[in-house]
Structures are given as structure tokens and as C-alpha cells.
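Quick one: C-alpha cells for this chain, please?
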Amino acid sequence: ATIPACKWLGRKRALQLFLLIGILSNFLAMPDVQISESWTLEFIACLIGSIAVSASFAILYLFTSELAPTSHRGMIMSLSSSSARIGSFIGPYVSLLYDITDRRVPLAVFAGATLVMCVAVQLQADTSGKQIPETPKGVELRA
């Protein structure tokens, strides 16, 4: 789903679309709705959200590499990969809030973090159909 979305919408808009699906699925998971004996709305919404966030993570790696100039790309990709690991460390601790607080609190925390990411992506330049910069000066010229 990520490749067709990137072709139709461009990388920036496709990334924002999948992030918005992740936000909406977190809010959709908040009400207590039993669909069947073993399925709840929370379970289905969290599955959809997990797929959307995984798709946005894949697009983000592509988008980040296109924003960085060739001379700095390795360092920037290493930094972004390290930042992703920090997020994967924090995730299980936020999910521990299920035991301490209302189950809507971790969903709201994840939705809030995803919203911050969506706004941050909006501030970035769109890279669709543009040359990848070779030097930091090329990044300045593109902006």
C-alpha cells in the first residue's frame, strides 16, 4: 500500500495520510464496543493503526534519505535509526499505563505523539519529482 500511495500522493502526503490513519485509529479504539465474542473495536482499530504506522515508518526512511544531502546522508540515517530505537524502547513503558490508568490514556499518548510527527512532516519540504541534493548548499537552494 505504501508504494501506490507514494506514487499517487507523493511521499510527504502519503506519510501524512498514514499518520492520520494512525491517529484516527487510536481515537476509534477508545470507546468500549464489543463486536463479537472475541473481537472488540479497540482490537480492530489497533490493528489498523499498527499497519498504518508501519507504512508511515517505511515511507519515513525513504523521505528522510531524500531530504539529506549525499555528503551527510549516512550520518543522518544513522541518527534517525537511533531515534527510532529510542521510540521502540519507550513504547512498552507507555503501554504499561494500561495497568495504572484508564486504557484511553496510552491511546491518547500515542495519538498525541503521532500528531506531533504529522505536524513536523508538514514543515518539511516536499521531495517528489526533485533532485536529491548532493551538498548542504543544495539543501539550502532547494528550500
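The chain has a mean pLDDT of 88.
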